[in-house]
Amino acid sequence: MSGGAACQCSERLRPANERHWRVLARRCNYSAFNGYHYTPSNWSHMKCLHCRASWRTKAKYVADFRDATEEELLA
Fold first, then answer.
1. Is residue 43 part of a domain?
2. Does residue 41 form part of some domain?
3. In the 3-class helix/strand/coil scheme, how is 31-73 assigned residue by residue?
């Protein structure tokens, strides 16, 4: 998966501690290339709960956000 289209909605303009962004996979991936198994990586998978954008990044800001809950993933 490439970087993807990062959030472009109003959430990105809010302070980091107020954004509705969640980490779907922190510093790992579950790619078809490895049979969808956990594989450590420098990349993390992010999602905006407001606009539903999903992207992968190596940015340090990932540490500022919590992991997505099961309810948030299903919503």
1. yes
2. yes
3. CHHHCCCCEECCCEEEEECCCCCEEEECCHHHHHCCECCHHHH
